[in-house]
């Protein structure tokens, strides 16, 4: 596994949890959870090996 992919997946999960908590109980800075999801998805996409050939 690639560290970039793992970091992106972890940031996406944390962002989703933060968003879910923010829906139930508003807290300061909850908008950053959406930013965390966007950055996490980007990192996961950049760090993934999906779709690459064997020798690339």
Descriptive account of the structure:
Helix content is about 70%, strand content about 0%. It is mostly helical. The longest helix has 22 residues, at about 5-25. About 15% of the residues are buried.
Mean pLDDT across the residues is: 87
Instruction: Tell me the number of helical segments per DSSP (H or I, 4 or more residues long).
Output: 2
Give the helix level as a range of percent: 55-70%
Query: How much strand content do the residues show?
Result: under 5%
Q: pLDDT below 50 for ≥5 consecutive residues: which ranges?
A: none
Rg, Å, rounded: 14 Å
Order of helices and strands: HH
Span between N and C termini? 15 Å
Choose one word for the global shape: elongated
Classify the secondary structure makeup into a structural class.
mainly alpha
User: Count the strands?
Assistant: 0
The largest sheet is: none
């Amino acid at each position: 596994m690639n560290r970039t992919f793992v970091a992106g997946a972890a940031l996406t999960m944390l962002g989703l949890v933060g968003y879910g908590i923010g829906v139930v109980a508003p807290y300061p800075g909850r908008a950053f959870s959406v930013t965390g999801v966007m950055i996490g998805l980007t990192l996961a996409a950049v760090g993934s090996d999906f779709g690459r050939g064997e020798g690339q």
